[in-house]
Design brief:
Number of strands: 2
Number of domains: 1
Radius of gyration: 11 Å
Mean pLDDT: 86
Oligomer: single chain
Helix content: 40-55%
Distance between the termini: 8 Å
Length: 61
């Protein structure tokens, strides 16, 4: 299995600014934790199951 990644700028969340952040990890869990912290701290999203589901849909290999 390849390394997983999320590019924040490709998937601007509604109401959020354009962002150049890039996250990668070997495990989906690690990637979701890192990208989730960013979404909460940088973009003001609530720590919800809905956010985690959105992030899961953004993961690429």
């Amino acid at each position: 299995m390849g390394r997983k990644y999320i590019e924040c700028h490709e998937h601007a969340f509604p109401g959020g600014p354009e962002c150049g952040a890039y996250f990668s990890a070997d495990s989906e869990k690690e990637l979701l934790e890192e990208a989730g912290r960013h979404a909460i701290n940088a973009h003001g999203h609530a720590n919800t199951e809905s956010l985690r589901e959105q992030l899961l849909g953004l993961i690429k290999e």
